[in-house]
Amino acid sequence: MNQHIPQQTDIVAAHQRIKPYIVKTPVLRSDFLDELCGAELFFKCENLQKIGAFKARGGLNAALSLPKEKLSKGICTHSSGNHAQAIALAAKLLNTKAYIVMPKNAPEIKINGVKELGAELIFCEPNLEARENGVKEIIEKYGAEFIHPFDNYDVIAGQATASKELMEEQVDLDCIFAPVGGGGLLSGTGLSAKYFGKKVQVYAGEPEGAADAILSFKSKKIEKAPYINTIADGLLTNLSDKTLEIILDTVIDIFTVSDEEILAALKLIYDRLKIIIEPSCAVPFAALLKNKAAFQNKKIGIILSGGNVDLAKLKF
């Protein structure tokens, strides 16, 4: 397991390690959305990744980095959805057991995704303490190896490969927008921009109803959101010490957006790109729309993080 902030060589190695198992996701364009924003937009479609989210990259890299003797006792995690599916997929591919602690209010589509991949599900109360206690019990009982959703350098290196691919395909980007929850994708994106980008600046979008990252970014220490109330269910987690350190070093700014702004961005992507994304995934595009005056005539990459949405719950 990697014990240091991922270097350029670590991200290159992670990409080689996971390439046989992941999809090289497409980059989509829209003339209408370019004109709307006054910029050239390049949407990296991780909603079309295995398990429907970028999380497959980090989960697979962390699992594939484990020695065989650790893998033999299985792997475990706690997650509200996409990382859970990533670990379940990794266990299936590596022929080992996955134990997943999920909050009992996790989206049905994500619960079903984990079940279909053959993982053992343990439900808990929807709070961090319950999730962590659930994992502790599994480790004590089975000796399974814990793969944290974001506070893990191998996971971060895996998430970094999404923006690495984007910058290889579109070499002249000015900036990249990513969502921020626990910060695994954002810190990975920041590292990729630092190592592979030509002066590429990284920005984040965060829901107003789970706005801890912007507070942590300003105070330079881990903060909690003043309140939790947002449709972006994938972005409810606090940053960790590992992700905050990288974000402070590599990210220019974090913008918050309301649920109304998230829904407006979601509708535009459904309407113009003709793809399914989940609300959390629309957050970086909503952040750009809200602040488009500052990004005129720029070439902008946007990481569309996932597409695991319960269609019955969509407000439109």
UniProtKB/TrEMBL annotation:
Any Pfam family matching the protein: PALP
UniProt xrefs under InterPro entries: TrpB-like_PALP, TrpB-like_PALP_sf
Keywords noted in UniProt: Pyridoxal phosphate
UniProt keyword Disulfide bond present: no
Domain Tryptophan synthase beta chain-like PALP, residue spans: 19-306
Cofactor names: pyridoxal 5'-phosphate
Database matches in PANTHER family: SERINE / THREONINE RACEMASE FAMILY MEMBER, SERINE RACEMASE
UniProt protein name: Threonine/serine dehydratase
Source organism of the structure: Lacihabitans lacunae
